[in-house]
Amino acid sequence: MRLGSLRFCGCVAAIFLALSSAHAGSSAGFDFDRDTLSFANWTVFSYENGHIVSHKNQFGHHYSRRCFVMTRTVEQFYKFARFEPKAARVDDPELTKRVRAVTKKQPWLDPLPPEKRIVIPGYRNLRELSRDKMSLMQANIGVGWVVYLRPGNARMFFEHSKEYQEKTHRLVEESLARHEFFVAYLSDFPILHINHSVLVYKHDKPRAADGSDHYLVYDPNHPDRPRHLKWLAANREFSFEKDREFPGGFTRVFQIYGKALQ
């Protein structure tokens, strides 16, 4: 091979590495079917059209109160883990150490470059890992009760102004413009139809003529597909998609995991 060819190959490799590093952790590359958890966060009670129909979970599932934990975990794995599908899988104790190492990192930190990420060998992505090792993941990504002690939760009691929601909308837009995630706490206190967390990762469509914005979110209660959050400019408020446990419509949005104590 000629020297010129070697230089050309070296330049191509350098450019490829630079581009890979530049996009590592950027929300622009987020793939719902690849980068989210395969299992669901189940509600404590059973619902129909947003109303409690039973004070027992009719499906018999007990993995609940983990929506905050799961949105945080998805961001942490996207920013701090690297999957190596061709590498040999490690045993469960070693995998547990690596999962905990990922989820101990503060989610508001900048993404790690590929060479400094925690390696998860033998799996292609988070969806595959969480499907194959569901119990291990559920036991090690975090407990639910701790989120009730988060200082940022107090905002649900007093930050009810339209101005605060307009500020939050600007923060969502700024985060997405930087190709970052926006982890949202949804609350309509004191109505209490919703008390939930989702991860906003991209626009669903261009801004409407009236200034309204449409977003795609990862909802831990629904691993089957993205859900929809809207900013209704005319009302100066957010609206979340209807589902089994929420009647749909008005919700306040508060940013979480954007900085310490948030």
Summarize the structure.
With 262 residues, this protein is α+β, with helices and mostly antiparallel strands.
Explain this structure to me?
With 262 residues, this protein is of the alpha+beta class. It folds into two domains: 31-147, no CATH class; 149-256, no CATH class. Helices cover 32% and strands 21% of the residues. The protein has eight helices and ten strands. It has helices spanning 3-23, 32-35, 67-80, 92-103, 126-132, 134-140, 155-158, 162-177; strands at residues 46-48, 51-54, 81-84, 118-121, 182-187, 195-205, 213-218, 227-232, 237-240, 249-256. The chain has a six-stranded antiparallel barrel. Strand 7 (213-218) and strand 8 form a beta hairpin. It is globular, with a radius of gyration of 20 Å. The termini are far apart.
Global structural class = alpha+beta
Biggest sheet record = 6 strands, antiparallel, barrel
How are strands sequenced across the largest beta sheet?
Answer: 5-6-7-8-9-10
Q: How many separate domains make up the residues?
A: 2
The average pLDDT score comes to 88
Number of helices: 8
β-strand percent reads 15-25%
Global morphology: globular
Stretches where pLDDT falls below 50 for ≥5 residues?
A: 1-23
Distance between the termini: 57 Å
State the order of secondary-structure elements, H for helix, E for strand: HHEEHEHEHHHHEEEEEE
Total E-strand runs: 10
Percent of residues in helices comes to: 25-40%
Cα-atom Rg, whole angstroms?
20 Å
